[in-house]
Amino acid sequence: MRKSPTMALAGALLALGSSLVGVGTARAAGSGQSGAGTAQAAANRVVCYEAHVAGIGWESAYSCNGAMAGTTGEGRAVEALRFVTVGMSGLCARAHVSTIGWQPWICVGDNATLEIGTTGQSLPIEAVEFQTQGGSVAANAHLSGYGWQGWVAGGRITVGTTGQNRSIEAIMVTP
User: Fold this and answer.
1) What backbone torsions phi and psi does residue 143 show, to the nearest 5 degrees?
2) Is 73 buried (19+), middle (13-18) or exposed (0-12) by CB count in 10 A?
3) Alpha-carbon Rg for the chain in angstroms
4) Contacts for 100 with CB less than 8 Å, ≥ 6 apart
5) pTM surpassing 0.85?
6) Which of 13, 30, 73, 110 could form a disulfide with 18 if both were Cys (CB 3.0 to 4.6 A apart)?
7) Following DSSP, what letter does each residue of 99-161 receive, concatenated?
């Protein structure tokens, strides 16, 4: 059974020791809150994502807050990605797709699905750029012929490469 983004988000929040109550009003760390309030706000920030993988299709479940989506060691490119956030005031993203280049930015608010890349065209994603609407985001990409690129964090970040013909094979994202 396919795990919906809502189920994945609820599960991630429960695993973080949080609840859905007040998630929509949580402020990001560094937004003026201090002490326990900041820790609670950070715990309420969730990003869930799933990959459309070459030869496999959409993964059967969403990964959340730093868990890996995609594959390593199989030579399978990520062709599309879906994201859903809670407590981040939304997310913007765009993909650099082989033979296409950069796609337009797509921005959504919390609890909405953002999809980048392509399906049914066998075109790998080579890079992903993220911009948060509140706080920061961190990501790490596993690239063909290279391995894990290393974590990048900030309000606007890019993982992957352009002009090197290296597909993203797996990705990890955390708020």
Assistant:
1) -105, 145
2) exposed
3) 16
4) 118, 123
5) no
6) 13
7) TTEEPPPEEE-TTS-EEEE-SSS---EEEEEEEESSS-EEEEEEETTTEE---EEESEEEEE-
Collapsed DSSP state (helix, strand, coil) of residue 90: coil
164: how many CB neighbours lie within 10 A of its CB?
A: 13
Residue 170 contacts residue 78 (beta carbons within 8 Å): yes
Q: Which of 106, 56, 57, 60 is nearest to 84 (CA)?
A: 106
- Residue 86: CB atoms within 10 A of its CB come to 25
The residue assigned the tokens 């392509």 is 118
Environment class of residue 160 by beta-carbon count within 10 Å: exposed (0-12), middle (13-18) or buried (19+)? buried
